[in-house]
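Example 9 (inverse folding). The structure is encoded as follows.
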């Protein structure tokens, strides 16, 4: 009887505390509607992920995952954009200047909402007619360092 009571008590303790520890270990990505950075018309799958920027980037298949892992720096812009789409990174500053964000400057770049510090920085991006050039200005390696930060798990 004592053994049965200990087993039940242990199970209850695990059920009570396990979710709490899981929630604080890592931020869960929001993958619904997120497209593969390599094949933009295919949705990503949680099973195909690569370590990148201290978190993960997701792909539609093993082939895309393999292509990315061979040359991740070549695909930095699309990977960085996905980090924002999956809410693993958030915008913290202007990607052009690093300055404080102005809500009135919000636009969409490659289907992702971004803000700038001023209309001059916003205009620099809007002035690029090519979507890839716009994305490079906002999500390229240097811009990403200035304007985005990894979302940290909530600590209780």
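The amino acid assigned to each position is listed next.
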């Amino acid at each position: 009887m004592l053994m049965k009571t200990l087993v039940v008590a242990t199970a209850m303790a695990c059920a009570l505390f396990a979710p709490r520890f899981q929630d604080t270990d890592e931020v869960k990505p929001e993958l619904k509607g997120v497209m593969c950075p390599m094949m933009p018309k295919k949705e990503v799958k949680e099973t195909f992920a690569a370590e990148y920027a201290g978190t993960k980037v997701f792909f539609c298949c093993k082939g895309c995952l393999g292509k990315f892992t061979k040359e991740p720096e070549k695909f930095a812009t699309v990977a960085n954009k996905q980090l924002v789409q999956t809410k693993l990174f958030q915008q913290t500053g202007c990607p052009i200047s690093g300055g404080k964000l102005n809500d009135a400057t919000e636009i969409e770049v490659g289907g992702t909402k971004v803000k700038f510090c001023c209309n001059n920085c916003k205009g620099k991006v809007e002035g690029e007619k090519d979507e890839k050039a716009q994305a490079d200005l906002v999500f390229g390696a240097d811009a990403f360092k200035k304007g985005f930060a990894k979302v940290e798990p909530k600590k209780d």
